[in-house]
Every structure is written in structure tokens, then in C-alpha cells.
Design brief:
With about 725 residues, the chain is of the alpha/beta class. The chain is about 55% helix and about 15% strand. It has 25 helices and 18 strands. A 6-stranded parallel β-sheet has the order 3-2-6-7-1-8, sandwiched between helices. It has a 5-stranded parallel β-sheet with strand order 11-10-9-12-13, sandwiched between helices. Strands 15-14-18-17-16 form a 5-stranded antiparallel β-sheet. Strand 14 and strand 15 form a beta hairpin. The longest helix is centred in the last third of the chain and has 66 residues. The two termini are about 55 Å apart.
């Protein structure tokens, strides 16, 4: 994309400078339908024309007519905003001009197709984010949406139609809707419109009729749209007991379905809800794909109006129940187990354990079919790469145990030689992990049989009692492998938690001991740089210069106009931008607000060398926590400074009043004496000799000198305060 087509930083800032009262007054109206072609855009244009007749200033931002002449005819007489051209891979794409709309600032703007994906290079990847900025700028918006684009209904639509819709709008944005108008026609009428070319044209209409536009699909989607619209507008007026929901999520592909189901249940109950992931020792060594899925699941939960939380513990169920009881959770949502029954018998089931231990909390079990990341079969077929090097070392350990035991065969009983192999298995489990130790357990049994059980150098066994020895040896070896491997995982998880806690403790303690804001920023930059080993910058607002770098080496960052505008956007909106977010994702760095209790006080920028850094929810959550700690400390120091200045001003005013009171008494007597002497000189009825006149003149001069000295002292006091 050419430089002149990049988002203008000045325009980027204008859209976030709207006053809060305007944002609260802006209204969003949705024209909601079950499918394309039901007449949402037509109904929206008719409503807009009526508002124009009422004297409302109406602007058409984007309208997609799709070649429908009757829809295009309704545009006559309405002001249409020119679209902005964006160059992408040699093509010029036309998109909604959000900067032009905010500069024009109409009372009402029409923006069609809420779920539309913007062209690469646009300020936001999704059109609903553009509309969010319009609402924040105090502009009323009319827009359209189909039921399949409602994020929390995505799974239900996939079940009905067999099609997973990728363009969705989060429920957190849709909750800003003030008015919802259902636009509905029967499936028969819709199919008739499709055949007449009033929905899609040519081959596109044929493909739609063969796939999505089937009578049973249309009827099911129509019922879903009607039911959802009724739920949105229903107001029973009955007071409900406050519910709080918790959904347990992992990096599993079924977790998005659990999150959406929880969001729908929470909406129907008007309840708060939280998505919780429990970090156990076994989950420490997660793959990059799993971490990426978990990060997307957390983002999905926030988009649907939930909170996200990561807990740490040895087991999932006790940690969830501990949090649930401490935070008055009334319902827990879990996924249906996908493991074979025999694994549940051997290793237990989270669902069964939750049902037994959490009898005081309602438990909901949700099926995981139809997930949008991958199928269960695909997950079952995924295999981790085997640690061949460690397995080779495990084979070597078994060989060493055999060499050590061979000369001891003449001294010790054969059964005692088993201890040598168990010792080797224990070392392997602790040093190399679970898989190599299990290999060592099996090889140890085979080696013991081959070398130490007669007949030698064969796997044949003449004494059947040795079969019991083999089984016990294998069971103990596998048990040692499992326990030692779990101990290693717990140690690694503990080290990670200790590292995070130590970082938070050190930072919090250092911040609390630093009263100067500039020194506090430098201290925070030093500690974060040492911890992350990445380029980090801190930005603070200046009265006239905008955002300014106050800590860090800016050489590693691209401090272009767009980047600096992004820092001001983050400062004003209090939201993250840059890599790993949906706003200006091409910047190459993550910009986080330093949030205080009242408002952001600065911006933190971090530039990782590996984009996978943002896929780890633990890293992202820790970084957000650290930014919050720094923001709170900065706000506290500034409030302390303001309080100190206010106290100094009060004390200065008190001293000034005391000084003026004292001076008023000091001035009053000399002025009275001076007045009397002048009166005696000027009064003709009072006879004065030359000597008396000279004495009066001398007294007047003395009093004048005294007054001049007092005036000079007063002037010095005033000048010292200024």
C-alpha cells in the first residue's frame, strides 16, 4: 500500500477525541434478519428517508445494493459519502471512509453489512470496529446483520446448516444496540426472490440455491432469528437472583463451543461469567498451536462479554471449586469427555470428580461436536514428536544397569538385581522425562529376563513365578516414571510461577519506594527489560508535544507518525494496539496503556523478536498486570505530588494571610501619625513656628521612610512567592 494511502495519524486521533457524553448519547439500531435478501438494507433506507423528512441530518456511509434496482432507487435524495481507495497487491479496493465520516459528523449514518471484513491496510480489520468508533464519536448508526454473523450463535448456525461462518460480530459490541428491528419474509418468498435474481446474480445465485439456501436451512434460520430477537427485546420485569457462571477452558478445539454456549446461557440469565484456564504441571509444555488456540479462546470470551482468568494448581477440579466458592459462582460449564472410557477408569474424569466434589454448584455438560477449529478425530491423530535423543540415553542407562548387575549376579539374589534397574529408571524419569523412563521400564524388564533369568540369553522363562516379578517390576517402573515425570513438571511449573511472582513483588516493592515519577519510569523500564530481554519503550503525554519517549532505546522501534499516533490512540482509548491486537496490527510492536484507577497515564511498547510471544496467554496476562502496576504507581505518585502541591499552596496562602494581617497593623499606626502631621501643617488655624514646622517635616520624613521600608519588605515577599 502506498504511503499516501496509509491511515493519516491526525485523522486517527480525531476519532478518539469525542467527549464521553456524546458517546453515551449515540444510538445503534440493527436491522436484523435470518438471511441475505430478506430486505434489511431496503428497510434501513426507508427508515433513513423517514428520518430525513423529520429534519435529521442523514449520511450514507456504505450501502451494498448488490445490483438491486429497487434498493438503489432509495438512495436518491440522500447524501452519499465517497469511499476510500486502498491499494492491495496491485488492486484498488474501495472501503468505508471512517475519517471522512467523523469529519462530516452527521446526526445519523448508514453503514451496511456490520460483519464485513475490511481490506488489508484499513485501520481496523472489521467494519463493526469502524462503527464502534462512530458511536464513540457521538454519531448515531443504522446497520444490518444476519443471524449467522452473531458470534454467540455461530455454533447453532453451524449445526443447522453445516457451514461455519467466519465473519462474526462479538456480543460485547452488539450489546450496545438500542433498537433492533427484525426484517422477515417466508422461506418460499425468499427462494422466489433468489430465482428472480433479487438476492444474488448469476452463478452466485445457483451456488446459493444448491448450498445455503435450502428450504430446511431457511426455516431453521428464520426460527433462530425470531427466537433470538424475542430474547433480546423481552422484558418480563421479574427480579432475578444474580447468577455467576464459570466455564473451564483449555487449548482444546471444543473450548470455543463451550465459551459460546456459556455466553448464550449468561445472556438468558442476565448473569456475569468468567472463562477459567487452570495451569497444571502437565500443561506447562504446551505446543505453540495450543497456546495460540487458548489465546484466541480468551479473546473470544472477552468479545462475548466474559472475563478471562488463569489459575495455577496441581489439579484442575480443586482449583476451579476453590475459585468458584470464593467468588459465589452458581453454575459451572464443562465439556463432555472425549477420552475413551478405559482412560477415565484408569486416570479419572474431570466431569465425574467435579460432580462429586462440587455438589453445591450446578454443573452443565456441553457437547463438543461441530467445533470451528478442528475435529476430534484430527486432534486424536495429532502426535507429539518423540524425544529420540532422550530415548537413546534411556537405552544407554538400561545397558549400564545390566553391566553393573552382571558381576553382582554371583553375590546377590536375582530379585535384588531388580533394584538396580529401578534406580536407573528413577534417574531416567527425573532427568529425561516420562516417555524415556517408560521406555527404560519396558527395556529393563526385557533385559532382566534376557540376561539374569535362566535360561540365559533368551526370553524364555522356565519358572512361572518370574512372571509375577516381571509384572511388579514393570508396574513399579511405570509408577516411578509417572511420579518422577509429574515431579519434574511440577518443579517447572513452580519455577515459572515463582519467576512471575518474584517479578511482580520486586516491581511492586520498587515502585512503592520511588516517589519521583521520572525515576519510577526508569526503574520500571530497567526491570522489565531485564525480565523480558526485549526492546521496551515508555511514552508519557506532553502538554504541547503529544506523546514523548521518556524511557528506553527508541532505535529498535519505528517511531513513524503512524506509530506515534498509535500511542496517542492507546492513551486516549485505554485499549491495546499493535501486534497481537485487532487495531493497527502491522506496527510490529505491542502498545499497552498504563492504566491508573481513573484513566491511562502513559503507554508501554514492547517489540518481541518472535511473534509467538503474543500467543502465550500467560505472557500477555503478566504483561497486562505489570502495565497496570506501573500505571497505578504512576498515578499514585502524581496524586501524591498534586496533594503535596495543594498542601503547599494552602500553607502559602495561610502564611500570606498572616503576613498581610501583620503588615496591616504595622501600616495603620504610621499612616495615622503621618496623617496627623500633614493635617497640622496644612491647617491654617494652627499657628506653627519655624522650629515646630521643621520638627513636623522631620517626623513626616521618618514615617515616610518607615512606610517605604515596609512596602519594600512586602514586595520581596510577593516576588519570592511568584
Amino acid at each position: 500500500m502506498p504511503m499516501d494511502e496509509r491511515p493519516d495519524p491526525d485523522q486517527l486521533l480525531k476519532q478518539v477525541q469525542a467527549e464521553e457524553p456524546d458517546a453515551r448519547r449515540a444510538r445503534l439500531k440493527l436491522f436484523f434478519g435470518a438471511n441475505a435478501g430478506v430486505g434489511k438494507t431496503y428497510a434501513m433506507l426507508e427508515a433513513a428517508r423517514q428520518r430525513k423528512k423529520e429534519g435529521v441530518n442523514v449520511l450514507v456511509g456504505v450501502i451494498e445494493t448488490h445490483g438491486r434496482s429497487e434498493t438503489a432507487a432509495l438512495l436518491e435524495g440522500l447524501e452519499v459519502l465517497p469511499r476510500k481507495e486502498i491499494e492491495y497487491k496491485g488492486f484498488k479496493l474501495k472501503e468505508f471512509d471512517i475519517d471522512g465520516a467523523i469529519a462530516r459528523k452527521p446526526q445519523l449514518i448508514l453503514v451496511d453489512e456490520l460483519a464485513h471484513t475490511n481490506a488489508p491496510g484499513s485501520r481496523h480489520p472489521k467494519r463493526w470496529q469502524d462503527i464502534e468508533e462512530l458511536l464513540d464519536a457521538g454519531i448515531n448508526v443504522y446497520t444490518t446483520i444476519n443471524v449467522q454473523h452473531w458470534e454467540s450463535l455461530n455454533d447453532k448456525v453451524a449445526q443447522v446448516t453445516g457451514v461455519v461462518v467466519r465473519e462474526t460480530v462479538p456480543d460485547t459490541f452488539l450489546e450496545r444496540t438500542h433498537d433492533l428491528e427484525l426484517v422477515d419474509i417466508s422461506p418460499d418468498d425468499l427462494l422466489k426472490r433468489l430465482k428472480e435474481g433479487k438476492v444474488y446474480m448469476g452463478e452466485q445465485a445457483e451456488r446459493a440455491a444448491e448450498n445455503f439456501f435450502k428450504p430446511h436451512n431457511l426455516q431453521a434460520l428464520r426460527e433462530l432469528a425470531m427466537r433470538h430477537a424475542a430474547e433480546r427485546v423481552a422484558d418480563t420485569g421479574i427480579s432475578k437472583v444474580k447468577e455467576r457462571l464459570l466455564v473451564s477452558v483449555t487449548g482444546s478445539p471444543m473450548s470455543p463451543r463451550l465459551v459460546r454456549a456459556t455466553a448464550r446461557l449468561a445472556a438468558s440469565l442476565q448473569a456475569e461469567w468468567v472463562a477459567v484456564h487452570v495451569e497444571t504441571p502437565s500443561s506447562v509444555q504446551q505446543s505453540a498451536d495450543t497456546k495460540d488456540r487458548l489465546m484466541r479462546i480468551f479473546k473470544l470470551a472477552e468479545q462475548l462479554g466474559g472475563e478471562r482468568l488463569t489459575l495455577s494448581g496441581a489439579k484442575v477440579v480443586p482449583e476451579i471449586l476453590r475459585y468458584a466458592r470464593a467468588n459465589n459462582v452458581t453454575k459451572i460449564i464443562l465439556g463432555k469427555p472425549a477420552r475413551p472410557r478405559w482412560r477415565e477408569w484408569l486416570f479419572g474424569s474431570v466431569v465425574n470428580e467435579m460432580a462429586r466434589q462440587g455438589a453445591d454448584i450446578d454443573l452443565y455438560i456441553i457437547s463438543g461436536e461441530g467445533t470451528d477449529f478442528a475435529s476430534r478425530r484430527h486432534i486424536a491423530e495429532q502426535k507429539k514428536e518423540l524425544p529420540w535423543r532422550d530415548i537413546g540415553l534411556a537405552v544407554g542407562v538400561v545397558a549400564v544397569c545390566t553391566l553393573v548387575g552382571w558381576p553382582l549376579l554371583r553375590i546377590l539374589d536375582r530379585v535384588n538385581l531388580v533394584m538396580i534397574y529401578l534406580l536407573g529408571i528413577m534417574w531416567t524419569a527425573y532427568q529425561l522425562g516420562r516417555t524415556p523412563s517408560m521406555v527404560a521400564s519396558v527395556l529393563g524388564v526385557l533385559a532382566f529376563d534376557f540376561f539374569f533369568v535362566p535360561p540365559y540369553f533368551t526370553f524364555a522363562v522356565t519358572d512361572t513365578q518370574y512372571f509375577f516379578t516381571f509384572m511388579v517390576m514393570l508396574a513399579v517402573g511405570l509408577l516411578i516414571s509417572t511420579l518422577a515425570g509429574r515431579l519434574t513438571q511440577q518443579t517447572e511449573a513452580l519455577q515459572r510461577r515463582v519467576g512471575r511472582v518474584r517479578m511482580l513483588y520486586r516491581l511492586s516493592r520498587a515502585l512503592s519506594e520511588t516517589p519521583d515519577p521520572q525515576a519510577l519510569i526508569q526503574l520500571a523500564w530497567k526491570q522489565l527489560t531485564e525480565f523480558y530481554k526485549l526492546p521496551i519503550l515508555f511514552f508519557m503525554p506532553e502538554a504541547k508535544e503529544g506523546m514523548r519517549v521518556v524511557a528506553g532505546d527508541s532505535a529498535a522501534f519505528d517511531l513513524s507518525r503512524e506509530s506515534m499516533a498509535a500511542t496517542e490512540w492507546v492513551m486516549l482509548r485505554g485499549e491495546a494496539a499493535g501486534t497481537g491486537t485487532d487495531t493497527l496490527a502491522s506496527l510490529g510492536a505491542l502498545y499497552l496503556p498504563l492504566k491508573g484507577l481513573q484513566h491511562p497515564v502513559g503507554v508501554l511498547a514492547i517489540k518481541p523478536s518472535d511473534p509467538a510471544f503474543f500467543q502465550d496467554p500467560e505472557q500477555y496476562q503478566l504483561l497486562e498486570t505489570l502495565a497496570g502496576e506501573i500505571g497505578g504507581a504512576l498515578e499514585s505518585t502524581k496524586m501524591s505530588e498534586d496533594a503535596g502541591r495543594a498542601a503547599a499552596e494552602i500553607e502559602t496562602a495561610r502564611l500570606r494571610n498572616l503576613l498581610l494581617t501583620s503588615l496591616s497593623y504595622d501600616l495603620r499606626d504610621p499612616l495615622k501619625r503621618l496623617g496627623r502631621r500633614v493635617h497640622e501643617l496644612l491647617e491654617p488655624s494652627i499657628p506653627l513656628s519655624d522650629k515646630s514646622r521643621e520638627t513636623l517635616m522631620k517626623e513626616i520624613k521618618d514615617e515616610s521612610d518607615r512606610l517605604e521600608k515596609l512596602a519594600a519588605d512586602l514586595l520581596k515577599v510577593v516576588e519570592s512567592e511568584v
